[in-house]
């Protein structure tokens, strides 16, 4: 596995990153319409393949993938820029799992042969992937899948819940326990013994599934990491997933603020816009503070995740816990300030509200991330005292 050995990648400079943000923002604003999002919601949250193809054509799908494998050669920090813009319009995309989790796992843990085998097609948006991580957000992480050594490979069995986009993925990265050790493997979606079942969620902009593995054989050529290498890879993927969710919530919080400010300037009561009332101004100001603070924490988290993916726990947990909770708070305030219209199906506000609420629980809820921060700080204090 390459997490400890791989040289950190700083990514683009600030000017190029700003240009990337403008490109992503323009594409998302023009292509991710309310009608398009609602159509995807009606399909059960299946990723919008046409939109994903547009992202791939623009080079955004493989922006983090090294140039030698057909990508843009940037870093996770640049990928997070795109994810934030996707969140700002509740885009229904496979990018959030395929690039962040599947391609990320191969990039961080794969051998050169495995990278050459999978990264070019993942970077081009020709192959889609995801990862089963939910069971690893426990203390200590246990996992719901077991692995047993067999011939030149491993036999996997067990359950993995709340896996994003599994039913529409070609490759699934699965972590499993093997006695005291762990194994991380890439499982083809058509593998014998693998069953995928949809899970109903309130947020209809994402599709969530449950995996059942019954005697799934994975050859050694498809195994990314074993033992301590697997622990580091799973830790890195957990951080990437949490940071990506924080990026989605940061975009969500900004969009909710913009929608609320615009509505408060148009809606009149007692002969004046409601945005002129002091109470409304205070709530809008709180929404702004929430969005800007979340963005600052996110920037620290993605910078750390780009260079130290397995050891950036505190920065990522701070961004995930605060950013997702504050986005949900902004959603609640937005509903209140929009009055009855915000609760209607015809208005888009409920789409952002439900997405923000699911983000609070994806890849570690607030309690889990606060606990991780507390343990890390307690450990640091103990070292200083010693």
Automatic annotation (TrEMBL):
Q: What is its EC number?
A: 1.-.-.-
User: Which residues belong to any copy of the Acyl-CoA dehydrogenase/oxidase N-terminal domain?
Assistant: 16-126
Q: Name one GO molecular function term.
A: oxidoreductase activity
Q: Which UniProt keywords apply?
A: FAD, Flavoprotein, Oxidoreductase
Task: Using the record's annotation, list all stretches that form the Acyl-CoA dehydrogenase/oxidase C-terminal domain.
Answer: 239-377
Source domain of life:
Bacteria
Residue stretches spanning the membrane: none
Needed cofactors: FAD
SUPFAM superfamilies to which the protein is assigned, alphabetical? Acyl-CoA dehydrogenase C-terminal domain-like, Acyl-CoA dehydrogenase NM domain-like
Q: Which InterPro entries match?
A: Acyl-CoA_Oxase/DH_mid-dom_sf, AcylCo_DH-like_C, AcylCo_DH/oxidase_C, AcylCoA_DH/ox_N, AcylCoA_DH/ox_N_sf, AcylCoA_DH/oxidase_NM_dom_sf
Family, according to the entry, reads as follows: Belongs to the acyl-CoA dehydrogenase family.
Protein name stated in the entry: Acyl-CoA dehydrogenase family protein
Give the organism, scientific name.
Answer: Phytohabitans kaempferiae
The root-end lineage is: Bacteria, Bacillati, Actinomycetota, Actinomycetes, Micromonosporales
């Amino acid at each position: 596995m390459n997490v400890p050995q791989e040289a950190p990648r700083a990514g683009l400079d600030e000017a190029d990153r700003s240009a990337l943000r403008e490109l992503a923002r323009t594409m998302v604003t023009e292509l991710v319409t309310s009608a398009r999002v609602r159509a995807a919601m009606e399909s059960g949250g299946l990723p919008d393949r046409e939109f994903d193809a547009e992202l791939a054509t623009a080079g955004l799908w493989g922006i983090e993938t090294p140039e030698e494998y057909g990508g843009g050669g940037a870093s996770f920090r640049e990928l997070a820029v795109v994810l934030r813009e996707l969140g700002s319009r509740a885009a229904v995309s496979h990018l959030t799992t395929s690039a962040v989790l599947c391609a990320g796992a191969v990039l961080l843990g794969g051998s050169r042969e495995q990278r050459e085998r999978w990264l070019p097609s993942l970077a081009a948006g020709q192959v889609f992937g995801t990862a089963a991580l939910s069971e690893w957000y426990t203390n200590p992480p246990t996992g719901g899948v077991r692995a047993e050594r067999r011939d030149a490979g491993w036999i996997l069995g067990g359950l993995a819940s709340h896996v994003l986009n599994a039913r529409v993925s070609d490759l699934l990265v699965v972590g499993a326990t093997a006695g005291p050790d762990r194994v991380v493997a890439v499982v083809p979606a058509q593998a014998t013994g693998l069953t995928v079942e949809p899970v109903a969620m309130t947020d209809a902009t994402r599709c969530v599934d449950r995996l059942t593995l019954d005697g799934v054989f994975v050859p050694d050529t498809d195994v990314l990491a074993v033992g301590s290498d697997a622990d580091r890879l799973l830790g890195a993927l957990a951080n990437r997933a949490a940071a990506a969710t924080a990026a989605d919530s940061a975009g969500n919080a900004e969009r909710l603020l913009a929608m609320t400010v615009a509505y408060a300037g148009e809606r009149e009561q007692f002969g004046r816009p409601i945005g002129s009332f002091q109470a409304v101004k205070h709530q809008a100001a709180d929404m702004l503070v929430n969005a800007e603070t979340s963005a600052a924490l996110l920037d620290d988290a993605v910078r750390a995740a780009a260079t130290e993916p397995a050891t950036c726990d505190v920065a990522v947990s701070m961004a995930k816990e605060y950013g997702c909770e504050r986005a949900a708070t902004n959603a609640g305030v937005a509903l209140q300030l929009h009055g009855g219209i915000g609760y209607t199906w015809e208005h888009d506000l409920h789409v952002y509200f439900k997405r923000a609420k699911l983000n609070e629980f994806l890849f570690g809820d607030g309690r889990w991330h606060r606990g991780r921060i507390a343990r890390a700080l307690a450990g640091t204090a103990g070292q200083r005292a010693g």
